Structures are given as C-alpha cells and as structure tokens.
Amino acid sequence: MQTALVILAAGMGSRMKSDTPKVLHEVADLPLIGHAMKAGASVSPARTVVVTGHGAAAVEAVVAGLDPGAVCVRQAEQLGTGHAVDQARQALAGFEGTVIVLYGDTPFVSPETLQALVASSTEADVTVLGFEAQDPALYGRLIADGRDLARIVEAKDASADELAVTLCNSGVIAAGCETLFTLISELGNDNKSGEYYLTDVVGLARAKGLRATYVTCPEAETMGVNDRAQLAEAEGVFQARARRAAMLGGVTLAEPDSVYFAHDTQIARDVWIGPHVVFGPGVVIREGARIHAFSHLEGCMVGADAIAGPFARLRPGTDLGTKARIGNFVEIKNAVIEDGAKVNHLSYVGDAHVGAAANIGAGTITCNYDGVMKHRTEIGARAFVGSNSLLVAPVKMGAESMSASGTVVTKDVPDGALAIGRAEMVIKPGFARKLMQMLRAKKAKKG
Ligand code: UD1
Ligand code: CA
Q: What is the architecture, at CATH level 2, of domain 228-419?
C-alpha cells in the first residue's frame, strides 16, 4: 500500500514571539519542519504535501531545499486543521493509498510509530495516533470503546467526564485518501472555536459505519513546539537521544551532557569525544579519531585515527586524512589535510591543500582573501612550514620544501627548496643595558 504525507505548517505560532515562522525554528540545526519531513520519510511516501500559511514563502523555500519533490499548498486563512488538510485535496488527486497527516511543529514521531499507523490502516478506515498524557490539559481526548474509536472531543468542547480521559490525540491521523477527503468535505465548524476540526472525521466515519481505531506511542514522540521553552525542551530531547545513540554505537563521550550533535552527525566506532564539543551540520568522523575538549566542527570529515583539539575549529570543507593532527587554536576551512599532516598550534589554514606528512608550524596563516576574492594555497607532501609563516595565496610550496620562520611566502617554492624572506637581524652589543639606563633616568627626572 502506498502512502502520502500531508504536513500541516500554516499556523502562526504566535507564542514563539518571532518574525520567523514557527516551523523554521531549529532543533539540532534542522528546522522543525525538516524533522517532521524526516520522520515522514521513514514510510517512503509517494507524495509529500506541506500546507503553508504564515510565512509561506520562507517555509516553501526551506521545504524545497530539503525535498525538491515535496509539493507546497497554501492555506490563505487558518480555519482549522480539517480545513488545512482540505488544501491538499488537489495535490493528492488520483492518489490511491493511505494519507498520513503530520504536524510541522511535532518533530519526534518515530519510524516505528508511523509503521504501526500504516499497518493499522490496512484494517481500519481511520487510525488516530494517541498517547497517555501526563497532563492532558488542552489536548483533544480520544473517546474509545476498546480498540474502537467513537470520536475525538477537543478540550474546549469537552464535558467534565470527557476531560477526565487521559488518552489524548497527538494530531497524527491516517486514512485512505478517498475516505479522508470525503469525510473532510462533510466537516462543519459548529464548535467553541468556530474551526473545521480534522478530529471530527472520526465521529463522521463512525456515523457512516466505517471503522475508526487508534494506536499509541510514548508521549515524548508527540511533543509539539509552541514556545521557546518547548523549543529548548525539544532540543534537550534530541540531544539526549543522539548522545545515547552515539554511545550505544561505540563512541566514548567523556562528558555526554556537554556534547552537542546536529541532526546528521555521523560518528564511527571507537571515536573518543572530550567534554564541550559542538557538532554543526554535515560532520562525518571515522574510526578511532579523537576530538578533544572545546572543539567546534561543521561540514567536515575527520579521518580515521585523526586528532583534533582541544579548541580546534573545523569549518565547512575541511577534510582531514588518516592520522592527521590538528592542535589547539587552529582554524581550518575548505582545506584537505592529507594523511599524517600536522597543524598543531595557533594557525589558520583556508582554501588549501596540505600534502601527506607535511608539518605546519605554529602561527602559520594562509592569507587566502585579498578583500575581494579567495585564493588557494598548495603545500606539498612532507613540506615543513616554519612557525609564523604567512602564505600569500595563490601560492604553492613544493614537496619537501621549507619556509624559514617568519617568512612571508609570496612566490611559489619549488620541491625541496628553502624559502627565507625576513629582515636581516643585527646585534648591537651592550645596547640593551644602555637603553634601560636611559629610560630609567628619564623616569626618575619626571619624579
Ligand atoms: C490539535 C488537535 C488536538 C490535539 C492537538 C495535539 C484539532 C482540532 N485538534 O489541537 O486534538 O490534541 O492538536 O497537539 O485538530 N494548522 C494549520 N492550519 C489551521 C490550523 C492549524 O496548518 O488552520 C496547523 C498548525 O500550524 C499546527 C497544527 O495544525 O501545526 C495543529 O494546530 P493547532 O491549532 O495547534 O491545534 P491544537 O489546538 O493544538
Ligand atoms: Ca498545538
């Protein structure tokens, strides 16, 4: 049976108090809508429709970037969740299969839960995802009789008896495409909010003699983000899961609670990660690497048994070879550092290629930017770049070449050659003592 997704993301999210649409706020460097799409992708949907409204243009741009195949439809006025789903009617015309409705602000529905929902859809006409709420508050209540679902009642419209029910509606719902849109066209808005409630499709289905049921999941999966405090809570939930998954996958985290992962961080076994390491998006770390404390990595690849940090900054386009070594206060950007090469102290290497086993001395800078354009630096295998060298790009240092400390390298250095470019040093005997005497005398005179 094929599946299609409808993801609701038209709401304003006024409690975020933000100029950014709610579903574009990020957890683990991925907008909330991206988490919902990622969760939905686990059922391999044949079609994905995102319903946008507030901040539609911005949301649509992000959706297109994440999944060029997704279709966005606009809900001009937010007249309720049922009305929102109705906007997907055209985009799903001719689709024969199960439609799953997700919320763009609910990031953590698991693949297992969605599988259970799909499985239930082969037996029931409508399946709702419910959960036992710690505090049911404003959630819709599932009014069930055994496995049969009679209806969903919104908290606003519920009686005291109904409010006592703790089995709540997550908002996720699955139904056959034709059934769903037939039921939606029969929705009314005669309720306390004056909205077209998606939840009313359950009661309508039952009235037609169709079967409605529910599956449940842990409450943590259904957590929605409505304000910044819940956004931080969602981040916490994500990080706790990512840390645990990394450790169970064979990664040592010296102090797990201080390490931050992005949604797509990939770390191989036997990697060791020190305290206070932060991963931005697009990081891959291979077996046996060590990332020391206070390092920040983003868009980079760290080779097997490589070492980075403490206090390393690896920016996008960094590719560290096997056993490469990046030390403290070193920034690398858009640069390949081949196997066994070392950049151990206080350096900036950007737009560069550093050959295998090359040694980059302390304080080396690739001067890659002339104020208008970026230029490349090439450093050959086993080259030795002296401390405090400035490599003014575009420039090449050959294999096994050297630069003397303090050299400003402005010309290509052939293989095996030494570059030395600094003012000649002069010794003035006794001059230091004389100078100090002069200065002290001057100070004494002033009083
Ligand atoms: C909804 C459910 C409630 C459930 C709760 C779970 C309904 C009527 N109620 O209530 O049973 O317990 O979610 O969190 O469905 N949206 C649109 N267009 C609209 C209205 C909403 O796109 O016209 C989107 C919102 O952006 C949001 C989602 O639908 O992502 C849910 O809407 P919201 O108004 O927050 O519903 P709740 O009142 O929380
Ligand atoms: Ca809500």
A: 3 Solenoid (2.160)
